[in-house]
Design goal:
The protein is of the alpha+beta class. It has ten helices and 17 strands. Strand 15 and strand 16 form a beta hairpin.
Length: 364
């Protein structure tokens, strides 16, 4: 009887614990991916707004001008209304006496406040603070002038934090193992030594071992197409990694494969709004190119994003490229989708043995 009582007591404790954990479990963050809620007093926000817009309101051309993020100010006494949102910035000088400054002081420990006061740090990122997959970024400095300077001088890092968590959330929403085309992934791994996540509605439009070129295409012939291609160069040199070589190689591939039915026109890089910069792509040094593609007869066009990098293990140059054709729609989110898919790329040496065995077993 005593043993039964003990068992029931233990079971009761476990169930109660599970219930408490369930109650404490944070719900997923909600809201638009491209909205950042800025918690700040109105007078301080007025002085910081230009710097924040310069960082987060960066314009990309698709070819319509679209902001990477939109900013919405919220007063600190309405903080509870946005605690479930995906992207939040809380900003004020450390000891200005404003309501937001007082709130920042209440949630930071003395060590962090000392770092801010000594200008050793000014950004404190808190992930999953009130909701799952949420980023709350606290920006502070000794005074408003230094806070402005810090925001502008650290613009790349600030943008990176919010872009990366947005990409992570987007991949979680795109990835579905049930609809993953593992047969295509297995073929690419077996023949070429790399994989990329292939969604159910993509088709393998072109597979050329001779040109080392693979083209995945979604919704061909529709008014919302997405194209991804992977191209590689064997026995390559890192010296290839400069923008003129990348532009020339991309044009070479698209002029052969991205053509009209009658071969009268092909895709090329448009002259306007093109930029190339150094990035860390999946742990590798890479050049990221963003710009617009167009048919050489100027009949149609859209945005593209391209990552080109050298893989030391295989001695290959890889070019991963995503393009959008959606003339009736804003294209920023579609471009982010293909960007996230490009970031699923992995070479064979990056895969676990279990993953390799699972994929290759599908070819037997």
């Amino acid at each position: 009887m005593k043993a039964l009582y003990s068992l029931l007591l233990i079971t009761s404790i476990i169930i109660s614990s599970l219930i408490l954990q369930s109650c404490d479990a944070k719900k997923p963050a909600v809201g638009e991916e491209d909205i950042i809620y800025v918690v700040a007093d109105s007078s301080e926000y007025y002085e910081l707004e230009a710097a924040l817009l310069q960082v987060f309101g960066k314009i990309i051309y698709t070819p319509q001008p679209e902001n990477l993020f939109d900013i919405q100010r919220v007063s600190v006494n309405r903080l509870d209304e946005v605690k479930n949102k995906k992207n939040i910035i809380i900003t004020a000088p450390l000891n200005s006496g404003s309501y937001t400054s007082q709130y920042i002081n209440s949630i930071l420990d003395s060590t962090v406040k000392n770092l801010i006061a000594s200008e050793s740090d000014f950004v404190i990122n808190k992930y999953d603070m009130w909701a799952r997959d949420q980023l709350v970024s606290i920006l502070s400095a000794p005074d408003i002038e230094k806070l402005n300077q810090q925001i502008l001088s650290n613009h790349e890092n600030l943008l990176y934090y919010f872009q990366k968590i947005s990409d992570r959330r987007l991949f979680q929403s795109l990835y579905n193992e049930k609809y993953e085309q593992k047969d295509i992934e297995a073929k690419l791994l077996d023949q070429y030594g790399w994989i990329i996540y292939v969604q159910a509605d993509f088709v393998l439009a072109q597979d050329s071992p001779e040109d080392k070129f693979v083209w995945l295409r979604r919704a061909p012939g529709s008014d919302m197409e997405r194209w991804i291609f992977v191209h590689w160069i064997d026995n390559a040199s890192p010296n290839f990694l400069e923008k003129d070589s990348i532009y020339a190689q991309r044009n070479k591939m698209t002029s052969k494969y991205f053509v009209t039915i009658d071969n009268s026109s092909c895709v090329e890089i448009a002259d306007s709004y093109i930029s190339t910069k150094e990035v860390n792509f999946l742990g590798r040094y890479a050049l990221m190119t963003q710009g617009l593609w167009r048919m050489d007869d100027k009949s149609m066009g859209g945005p593209f994003i391209n990552y080109t990098f050298y893989d030391e293990a295989s001695k290959r140059i890889y070019m991963l490229d995503g393009s959008i054709y959606a003339p009736k729609y804003y294209k920023k989110r579609l471009l982010q989708q293909v960007d996230v898919l490009l970031q699923s790329f992995m070479t064979k040496d990056q895969l676990s043995e279990d993953k390799i065995d699972d994929l290759l077993s599908r070819l037997k």
